Amino acid sequence: MCDVIARALTWVLTVLTPRRPGRHSAEYLAAKTPEPAPATPWARPWSAPSAQEVRAIFKDKRTRELPELQRERVYAAEFARLGIDYDFPTMPLGSLVARKKVAA
Asked: Under a CB-based contact definition with an 8 Å cutoff, are residues 71 and 65 in contact?
């Protein structure tokens, strides 16, 4: 009689208690799907200007005779034509910014 009661109790507990999904069920497989690999920058085509285009901008003879500030503005305009943001990286900031010694 104990065996019948134990089996009945086991069956009731297995039916009523929440179980984890089995290894071959849809819920289990959906929970175990791997995350997609992160996109690498090498997967998309090159969007920057080519080296020849940049050299043509910097080695233009008409800009060599301009003052430095105007030359930088011409560079910025040429890069804007190509769709690139240019923020005066070649301009010397030593004359514009006074640096002071800081006691640390």
From this structure: no
Q: What is the DSSP letter of 43?
A: G
Residue 95 DSSP label: T
Model pTM score: 0.45
Q: What is the DSSP string of 1-34?
A: -HHHHHHHHHHHHHHHS--PPPTTSHHHHHHTPP
Distance, CA of 87 to CA of 104 (rounded, Å): 31
Within 10 A of 78 (CB to CB), how many other CB atoms are there?
Answer: 19
Please list the rounded mean pLDDT of every run of 10 residues in the chain (104 residues): 84 79 78 78 78 89 88 88 76 52 58
Residue 41 phi, psi (nearest 5)? -65, -20
Residue 8's Cβ-side half-sphere holds a number of Cα atoms within 13 Å equal to 5
